Amino acid sequence: MAWSRFLRETIGVVLIALFLFLFFFVDFTSLAHIKDIIPKNWMNVNTIFLSIFLEAAPFVLIGVFVSSIIQTFITEEQLKKAIPRNPFLAVVPAALAGLVFPMCECAIVPVVRRLIQKGMPLHIGMVILVSTPILNPIVFASTYYAFRTTPYIAYYRLGLAFVAAVIIGLIVYCLYRNQNVLKDQTVVNPHIHLGFESRWKQILQHAADEFFSTGKFLLIGALIASCFQTFLDRQLLEQVASNHVLSPAVMMGLGYVLSLCSEADAFIAASLNHTFSAQSLLAFLVFGPMLDIKNTLMLLAYFKKRFVASFFVIVIVVVYIVVQCARV
């Protein structure tokens, strides 16, 4: 385990050093003849890929550091105290928890599991799980920046995510109430007996791990999005995009498969702004952080399969209906 961590950190440092060297010391204008060797389509893929990645990377970096600080210094008990005991009234502040405790969809799953094991109602935990990755200032800033020519997308994203999270929470409450849907696992609080210096060391370690973890999904997402724009048949794309029933569902599926970090997904969506409708882009931006491949695997590790399956259906149906009802 220690060797694996050392190898990962070494590779990360080497890649960062290589990137800085290429950025500051290599004159790419002298390599113009490469354009004659590489096909034009792949040069276009490269251009789109770099523009998406370089715009998104700073927001991902900010997000992982904020998430790491919160994970290290904020306890679950402090979060529980801020939530009312009334099961219906508690849904609203739970949906807004991300404004105070911004976390990505990867970090929030184990936190919610610990909260539920310590006595938080299931439906409140699920509201926090689906809302926190979207309803937080870092994600709003990245979305606003990515859609700076159409900033209303950022406001709609937050509004629709809030409405969807509240509805999801109420449905989970009606279906499950106080049922135990967690797998039996012992939870160990990693922050007990840690000194201040040790906590900051843990922040750096967690931030590095999360950055490289989310960074690879950002790279994959940026590559798929750039290939998507370059090689996909435009006529087929226009047919899908013009179908108001099918288009949001396709973009929800794309958000699930790409599994992007919520601090970066807006830049992928913005690259498709001229092809898909605002409703379809919002379906991508709302559904992706709530459910993707990454957090599905984590949910299956912590929760019973039957609950995960029903939760999956609830989120899909609610997000699709909420987006379709939006007048964008």
Automatic annotation (TrEMBL):
Pfam families for this protein: ArsP_1
Keyword presence, Cell division: no
Keywords: Cell membrane, Membrane, Transmembrane, Transmembrane helix
Top-level taxon: Bacteria
InterPro entries the UniProt entry points to: DUF318, UPF0718
Compartments it resides in: Cell membrane
Residue ranges crossing the lipid bilayer per the database entry: 6-26, 47-70, 90-112, 124-147, 153-176, 211-232, 244-261, 268-287, 307-326
UniProt keyword Cell membrane present: yes
Bilayer topology: Multi-pass membrane protein
Main location group: membrane
Family: Belongs to the UPF0718 family.
Name of the protein this chain belongs to: Permease
Species of provenance: Ectobacillus funiculus
